[in-house]
Each structure stands twice: as C-alpha cells, then as structure tokens.
Amino acid sequence: MAADEVPYGTLDLMVLKTLDGLGPLHGYGIARRIEQVAQGSLALNQGTIYPALLRLEQKRWIASEWGTSENNRRARFYRITTAGRKQLAAAAESWARTVSMVNRLLENEP
Amino acid sequence: MSPRVLLSRLLDPLFRARRDRRLNDEVRLHLDLLAEEFEAKGLSPEEARSAARRAFGGVDQVAMRYRDQRGLPLVESIAQDARFAGRSLTRDRGFAITTVLVLALGIGVNNMMFTILYTHTLRSLPVAGADRVVFVSTRDERNTDRGLSWLEFDETRQAVGGTALAAFATGPAALADADRAPERVERSHVTGQLFDVLRIAPILGRVITVEDDRPGAPPVAVVSESIWKASFGGDRSVLGHDVSIDGSPATIVGVIADRSGFPASSNVWQPLASSKSLDRDDRAARVLRVVGRVREDQRMDEAMAEVRTVGDRLSADHPDASRGIHTRVVTINERFLGRASDPAWAAFMAVGFLVLLIAAANAAHLMIARGLQRAREVAIRASLGASRWRLFRQLLLESSLLAAVGGAIGLGFAVAGVRLFRQGIPAGILPYWIDYAIDARVLAALVGVSAITAVLAGTVPALQACRADVNDTLRNGGARVTDSRVGRRWSGALLVVELALGVVMLANVAFSMRVSSASVPSDAALTTDTVLTGLVSLPADRYPSPQSRLAFQDAVKEQLARLPGVRGVAMASALPVFPVSERKILAEGQERGDAISVRQVAIGEEYFDVLGLGAERGRLFTSEDGVPGSDSVLVNAQLAARLFPDGNPVGGRIALVPPQETAALEWRTVVGVAPIIRQRPQAEPEPIVYMPLRLSPPAAAAILVAGDLPAAQIAPAAREALRRIDPAVPLYDVAALGEAVARAEWNARLSHSLLLALTLIAVGLAAAGLFAVINRMVAGRRREFGVRLALGASASDVARLVVGNAAKYVAYGAVAGIAAAIAWDAAFGVSARSQTTLPGARLADPIVLLAIAGVLAAVALLASLAPVRMALGVDPLAVLRQD
After folding, report:
1. ipTM for this model
2. Where in the sequence is the domain holding A94, given as residue range(s)?
3. What pTM does this model have?
C-alpha cells in the first residue's frame, strides 16, 4: 500500500497527542514517533513538523524551551500546555465524531 | 487569524533573527539525528546524509513555510508587488509622468479648494473655548444682521442666567499724543466683561475691567501689540502713557497680542462707558455687537434658547421701537466662519471634485491604454500561475503608487495655488484668523482624496487588464489585443462629456472677459494714477452738526487746492466702484409700492470735474446745489431709463422713499444725467442717484485730489495739509484712484482668475484624455496600420485616419458643449445679461462658440501628434510576422 499524504489538519492533532502521551520531545523525536505509529502508512516530510510546531506554539497549545538531548546535544524541547490538552480533547472528540459519521455513511451505501 | 497568532506575526520582525537561528539549529540537529539513524542501518556517511535530507523534505520549502507561518506574508508580498510596480513604472516613464501629472492636477486643485473652504468655514476661531461662545444679533425684514441697542443689551444681560454677555462697538478713531501726529486706528468701545468672555489676556499691563466701564472712571485704553511696537517703540513705559483719542485724553493700561484681539480689525480698546456716540436711551439705535460665553454647567442649546427668548420678549414689550425685531443667537464660529453647507461653498467644492473626477477619468484612459500595450506581460504572468486577484492587486497597486506620487506633487500644486490665491487678496482685507496653512486635517483630506482617486482611476483599467484572454493574447504574441467594446464606449462618452464641459467653461470665461473688459466709458478715467484718494472720518463729538462738517469740508478743499501741482479737489460719500448704500426711489406719478432700488452717492460739485468726466445731458452740480432752497439731483443713464422710460429726465421730479413709512416724500428735480460710473466692483453699472454733498455732509467721506503729478508725490503734502486743519482727523487709505479701484475689485478679479485657471486645467485635462484615447486606439490597431502601410497607404493616409478619429470626438464634444452652453444661457443667461449693457452679449454667442470650436480643433491636432508618430512608426514586417 502506497503511503498516504498527511490529511489536512491532522498533523496538529498528531503532534498534540504525541506530546500528551510521551511528555517533552524535540522535533526529531516527535517525527519519529508519528512515523512509528503510522508504521509506514504515512508519507511524512519530517521537515513539515516545524511550521506545525510554530503554529501550535503561536496558539499557546504547546510551549518550548532549550534542553539537552539523549546524546548531549542542544535541542528544543516541546511540551503540551493546559490549553493544548483542552484543545486535544476537543479535537480528538470531533475527529472521532467525523470518522464515525463518515464510516456510517460509507457502510450504508447500498 | 486569532489575536494571539496575529500578535506573534506582528512581532515577528523583532524576533526574526532569533527565530531564524532557532529554526536553523533545530533543522541541523534533526538532520544529524536522521543521518545517524541511517548510518546505524548500515549506510555510508554520505548516503546517510542525503537519505536524511530526503526524509526531511526540502529544507528551503520548510524554511519558507515556516516564515509564511511566522510573519505577515500578505504585507511582504505587497511590498514585493510595490517594488515591482515601481520598477515597471520607471521603465515606462512617459506614461508614468503623464499620469502622475494628470492626477497631481486633479488632486492639487481639489486640495487647494478644500484648503480654502476649510480655512473659511471649518477651522475654529482663535478664541479660547470658542465652541461655548455665542454671537447675539437682531434681525428684521430689511436687515438680517443688526446689532443690539444699549437698552436691549443691558436688559438682556440682566435677565439671562446661563450666559455671560458682553458688548462692543467699533469705529475709526484718531490716536495721538503730545509729540506725534494723529494716526488712524480702529477703536472698539467694550463692556467690562468682553475680555473675560473671550478669555483674552494682556501681554503687558491689564485689560479693560468692569471697574473701568463705569461712568466717571478714569479714562483708559488698551492698545494692540503692533500699535505698541510701531508707535511706542515696544517700550514698557507705554503703561501709564497719556494719549489723546479723537481728542479725548486716555491712559494706556495694557497691551494685547496681535492676532488674538476681537473684533479682528480693532487695535485700540476703550470702556463702553467712555463712548460719546453711544445713545443709551434710544431702543432702536442698534449699534452694539454682542457676544456671550455659555456657563460651563449649561447646555449650549438651552442657553442659546434662553437668550433668544429673553430678546424676543423684550421686543414684544416695546412694540414701538422693536416691531418685527427678532433676536438671533448663533455660535461665534458660525457667525464669523459661516457653514461649509452653505450653497456657495458647496458649489465651490463641487467644482473641486469635478476637476478631480475629470483627472481620475483621464488617468483611467491612460491606464487602459497602457494595459493594452502590456497585455502580453499580464498574460505571461497569468499563465505562470499568478492568480487573477494577485494580478488585479498588482495593477491596483500601480495606480495607488501613481496616485501617491500624484498626491505628493498635488500638494505642491495646492500650496502654490493657495499662495497665488492669497496674493490675489489685498493685505488687511481678511481677518487675521483666516490663515491658509496646510495642517494635519488638510493633509488627511489629501491622503483620503488620493486614496479614493487611486481606486476611482485604477479599478476599471485593472479589471479590464486581468480579464484579457490569456490563450488568445499569447497565441497572437500580444500583437492583436482585443479592446473591450464596452470600455471603449465608456471612455468615449466620458471624453465627450469632458470636452463639452470644457466648451461651457470656455464660453463662461469668454463671457466674463467681455463683460469685465467692456466697457463703461468712465473706466479709463478710473485707472488714473494722477488722482489721489483718501478717506477721513469725523469724530462725532468734535463734529456734531452738519454745519461743522461742512466747514471742515470747505477747509479741506481750500487747503488742498493751494498745494502745488493740484488741479482740483472733490469730496464724496464714497469713491467710485466702492459699494454704497441702497435706497428706494420713485418718479412723479408712481405709487410708493413701485419704488425701485437705487444706489445713492453724495458728491461735491467738483466730483466729475476731478474725474475728468462731463454730463451726458443737462448740467452737473454747481456750488448753488444743495444749499437751502435748491432741490436738484443727478441721475445716471440707467436710472433715467428706469424712471423716465420715454422722455427727457431733465426737469423730471423724483423722491427718495424714507425708511419710515409714514414720513412725507421730499420731491427733487433732476437737473442732469451724470456720466456712468460703476459703484460695485466689476459689475455693470446700476441705477444711481447723486445728491449734493452739502445737503447732508457725511461724517465719513472720501477726498479726491486731481493733480499734474503722480498721486504718490502729492500724498505727503496732502496729509500735512489735513493735519493743519485738525490734528485729530488723519487722512487714511491714501492711494492713487487706479490703485484704490483695483483694490476694491480684488474679489471679482480673484474669482475671474480662479475661473480662468480652472478652465485651463479642465481643457488641459480634456486634451490629455483625448490624447490617451487616441493613443489607445492606435495601440489597439497597430496590426491594421501595419497592413495598411504594407499595402501602400501613404503616411498622410494613416495620419488622416488617426486625426479623423480625434476629430470625431472633438466634433461630438463641441456639439454637446454648444448645446450645453445654450442650455446654460437659457437657465442663467438672464442674471448674466443683467450685469451687462453690451448689446447682444450672451454666453451662447455664435462667434465665441465658433472660436471655441476652433480652439478645440487645435487641441485635437496637438493631442494626436504623438499617436500619429506611433502609427507611422509601426513596422509592417514585424506586425505581419507576429501572425
């Protein structure tokens, strides 16, 4: 199966979920995690994560600070904020609703 | 975009470098980690690096998206478009300069007229807290702007609670002291509250107070800064200095700054209690001007209504003296500045916007023409993926840039125009608060108008340019641009309207030139510089009776006639061309209701002789006229024609109707028809009746001295002679007659020049519009011209084609303009003709209109010169090869 493009708007949700689940991570870590979960079903240009991170930070859903990576390199670590958690909950619920609605629609197709 | 994101974006320029570094660091780490991962999977370091780059995606694209997310991409791309527009305009310099000049003219004229309007109506008076100061006056059927009498003022002041009222009366006076010749000043007698009400503070000493304004108080005076400097050397010792004002002693107690006094023309102030001419018992002597400051705790409308109610109640209580008298209360700004909504000002501003519209339409013509020439560029950009919106924005940005530059140059035009306008107004005519300065609000209007102009002029051309069919344009190499028929029709119609408007304005100018240049035989006599004129004004307390004034006049004539080089001396109630009062007059056999309006001038018997004019019929005055027992008057030809339409006026009997309805008529005999002299600036002569000066010698009189020398050489001796007669009566406004008349005519001359300038601009703009349309026609038909030339058409054939096209518009414009001029003549011709006695003078004069059509034809030829050159410059081979 060919890897799909990241559906529009879902990258934000994936980043928030990742940070919520794993705690503070740098950009590389987030990208790796998303690729792991996708198990090759997603063609992610890893670089696209950075504009997304900036966007989320501008909305104050995540915060960032400099820290040291596993191999002692200077890295920017991102963590989810309270507002981010709220947004994640809302977005996840809305996502679930959308998916189940689309599923029902598809199943009912005669 | 949420406010937070917007804020972050707005702040971006501050953090740009830091954020760029941060992204760089993050990306480098990311790539390193990725490469390490690939190396761990067994790739060589180089392979690992390039695999990392692949997995990451384009670093530059990411950086760009990152920046897009970060700053304000719209602003950045607009800045980019603006740079591009600037480059493309400097490439097409001819177009850019023409368009900018056209827009600058329109914006400049508009801003100049706005500056004048704003200065005269919208600015506040330089009175502290002017919006709470009111002006109180009375009106009746005959006069809408009377003052109040002392009794009315005093009773109103005591009855009104919400407003502090003060009064003043202004008139000429002579200021002198022990060792100086008298100097003519404008003195205001003021009540003690005036300076308080107007919040005028002295720069030296003190102002006039309520204590000064009491009967028996020591006589004091306050002088203006300029009098203080000119006559007292700006020395502090002026305080306590004793002077004589109109022969009465007074002590100077204070100095107030120039440009802060009120009324504006005053330069000496004294307590009203010291006034000798104020009649405190006559309720009908309405000579006081009244101002008031509404108390802070009062509402303006209620306080003004209170004053009005009190005033009207007083009128009702005294029906004898106050029949039909109503009190009028307006803010001081409205009284002295008028309202911008006044129809005359509205018309004035409408002209300003008309010129702006014509300019914007012309700029649109030019831009449409340019749009056709650059259709290829637009098509290429569209095919490379530029969105219509982006193209539209680009083109609108170009017109904005042009309008911005045009606005900046227009400001220069406006400043120069206002300066010229200001120079057309003689010094001392306008009150000091009329200051045509460009301030923030005028600049804001300029910016606003420029922005509107950019949209007005730019939208249609921009829409038209981006609507062009990309495929078609590219396929034929941009050679055959399809001009939109609708657009062409619109700009053609616009052009015809512009030209027609030019015709009407030219016809108006021609008419006004004929009227003002025409004309009255006496005009030549009035331009002389060998007649000296000056004014005197006799203080009421020193010259209370007609006999005393007559004695003064006789002394003046005698003294002046003795001066060397003087041929004759005359006195009159007013100089020629200067406005005089109006009276009602009727001839024997007419009812009072039939009385007609007439200007009345009192003249000494030497008057016409000094002017070098003789009687048209009958005789002029002699020293026998005006003495008791004589009843002679003179009329001019206009009055004779009205009163005695079918007969000889000499020997006819006429009567001036007295203001009191019940008073008996006093019949007088016409002894001659006086030469025609205007008694209003640049208007056609009206009916005038001349009374002998002896009959009732006026307190304010004009002196005319005819000499063999230029007036300027006689002036010093004449001043000295007057001083010998009475040091308290200075000769003022001394000038040669020609100079005085020119001064009196400034208003008419100024409006004439303004009309001429606006006409030239309108015609110039119409010519530019014609040029643009013809140019565009040639641009759109280049291929056709190429084919014609290739098939053997001569240069003159092509030229004829182009000029013929221009001639078509001019012909339409001329026909429409002539029709409009005839319609204008029918609508306004009656009033225009009433200003002239020229036989058959009319706006729609066939010869004038033909001449104007000729002018337009010449303009058409001029405007098609460049397009003809362009048409002839088409290379047939190049055009044909493009197909």
Report:
1. 0.86
2. 10-108
3. 0.64
